[in-house]
Write a structure and sequence with these properties.
84% helix
Length: 97
């Protein structure tokens, strides 16, 4: 799933920037404003890519909300912590298990 998201981010970033670069080159050829059309449309592509990535992140976080820990998970953590403390106490006292 993470590789798919990374692929989407890559495409969302690459396509608008590449299209902006191509259109900028064509604009510069037609008007003779080199390199301003290229730079301007690359910047526009970067802005569009930023909005696309922000939208993807928002969609992903809406689909995968973070939830609070359940009481069962908290209790498991407390048991684990007490087991570790008990092992450390025995080690300090020289009691081997």
């Amino acid at each position: 799933m993470n590789a798919a998201i990374l692929g989407q981010v890559g495409l969302i970033m690459a396509i608008p920037i590449a299209c902006g670069a191509w259109l900028g080159l064509k604009l510069d050829e037609a008007t003779g404003t080199s390199p301003w059309g290229l730079l301007g449309l690359i910047f526009v592509g970067m802005v569009i890519a930023g909005f696309g990535v922000a939208t993807l992140i928002k969609r992903f976080s809406d689909d995968n909300p973070t939830t609070e820990s359940t009481e069962r998970a908290r209790e498991a953590g407390r048991r684990w912590d007490s087991e570790i403390r008990e092992r450390e106490r025995k080690r300090e006292l020289g009691e081997d298990e």
